[in-house]
Amino acid sequence: MEIRVLRYFLTVAREGSITGAANSLHLTQPTLSRQLQELEKELGQKLFVRGKTKITLTTEGMMLRKRAEEIVEMVEKTEAEFKSINEIISGDIYIGCGETESMKYIAEVMKDVRLEYPNIKFHIYSGNAEDVTERLDKGLLDFGMLIQPIDLSKYDYITMPQKDIWGALLLKTDRLAQKKVLTLNDIVKEPLIASRQMSKKYSADSGFLDWFGKDFDRLNIVATYNLVYNAAIMVEKGLGIAITLDKLVNNNPKICFRPLSPKLESRLDIVWKKHQMFSPAAKQFLDRLHYKFNA
Fold first, then answer.
1. What is the Cα–Cα distance from 284 to 117, expressed in whole angstroms?
2. Which CA distances in Å does 62 have to 10, 48, 101?
3. Residues of the chain scoring pLDDT < 70
4. Residues 151 and 279 in one domain
C-alpha cells in the first residue's frame, strides 16, 4: 500500500467524485480509477459505492479513511522532522490537551520558544484524556496535557504546580446559583451535564468516585461533553448544570460558576512517550518546560 495511493484515496473521499479528485490531483480519470481499483483489489474490500454523479464510502471505505488520515499525517510529520535536522532549528510541535486555564502557562513557554526560534510552529489538538493518549500512543502528538488523576505508567511527565478547581456551570436564574458553593446533596438529583472524564466509564481514573462516593450511581447524567463550549450552550438552554473546571466560561452573562464543596481540585501533567526520540524543535520545547516547571 503506497502513501501516494492513500493520498489519492483521501482526495476522492473528500471530493466525492472521480472527476473532482482527478482535477485536484492533476491526473486523468482513467489513471485515478485504475489506482483505486488496484487499492480495492489489494485490500480485498469494496471501498466506494459509485453513483451517477457522486461516489460514497462503504463501511470499509470509512474505516480506511480514518486509518489513511492517521498514516498520511504521521508520514508528513516524520518528513518535516527529518527536513528540520539540517536546518536552523525549525519544525512543527504537536500538543494535545483538554480545556484548562493552565494552558496559559504552556502558552507562555510556547511564546518563549518562538522568540528564540521563530521558525518553530505549534499545533494544538483539543480533546479529553482518552483522545489525547490515543494520539500520543500512535505518534501523532509530541506532548499531551492530562488532568490528574491519570495512569502515567507509559509516559514520562512533568507535573505542573497549579491546580484547577472543579465546580458547576449553571444559569444565574437557577435556585442553586444563590449558593456560594455546591455540595453533593445540592446536585445529586439535578440533571447533570458531565465531562466524559466524569462519566461512569472513565470514573475510576477521574477522582469523581471519591467525591461522590456511594451516590455516584444515583447521579442524573442527562448529557456528556468533551468541549466545555458545547456544555455551556446546553446549560444556557436549560438542559441541566454542567460539571467542569473553573475559569473556562467567562463571557456568558446568563451563566455562573459555583465550586464544589468539599473542594475538588486537579493538577495537570505534561506527558510524552517513554524513550521518545524528539525532533530538534520538540527538544527545545521540552527543555523550556523543564526549566519553567522544575526550576
1. 9
2. 10, 9, 36
3. 84-87, 197, 199-209, 295
4. yes
3-state DSSP helix/strand/coil % of the chain, to nearest 5: 45, 25, 30
Please report, for residues 22, 176, 220, the alpha-carbon distance to residue 182 in angstroms, rounded to integers and kept in the order given: 59, 8, 16
**What CATH number does the domain containing 256 carry?**
3.40.190.10
Question: Can you give the pLDDT at residue 195?
Answer: 81
Co-location of 156 and 272 in the same domain:
yes
Q: Are residues 53 and 139 in the same domain?
A: no
The answer on 173 and 251 residing in a single domain is yes
Looking at the fold, whether 250 and 168 belong to one and the same domain comes out as yes
Q: Is 60 helix (H, G, I), strand (E, B) or coil?
A: helix
- Domain encompassing residue 66: 3-81
Kindly report the pTM of this predicted structure: 0.67
